[in-house]
Specification:
Length: 92
């Protein structure tokens, strides 16, 4: 399995607890597909350099994972479909 780093930004109008539950949700998606979360960090509500989907702020989260490519692809697909996630980025 490969090591990946994921960063995603959630909408500003959700609570801190909801943003942290997104980390647990996407970690569960990885676990269901044969991966695991090595480390996760919630960075809090930050101001962005430019507006994204009419939002000036966002909840930043970071995940370090050890997962097969299929599990990462499934998690990214679900991030794109989730209403609360504005942006996501994978670092290999």
């Amino acid at each position: 399995m490969a090591l990946y780093e994921h960063t995603f930004i959630a909408r500003q109008d959700i609570s801190n607890a909801q943003a942290e539950s997104l980390i647990e949700h996407f970690g569960a998606v990885l676990a269901d597909n044969g991966g695991k979360v090595v480390d996760s960090e919630y960075w809090g509500l930050k101001t962005m350099a430019y507006k994204v989907n009419k939002n000036r702020k966002g909840h930043y989260a970071f995940l370090k994972t050890d997962a097969p490519a299929a599990a990462v692809a499934e998690m990214e697909r679900l991030m794109r479909l989730h209403d609360d996630v504005m942006l996501s980025l994978i670092h290999i």
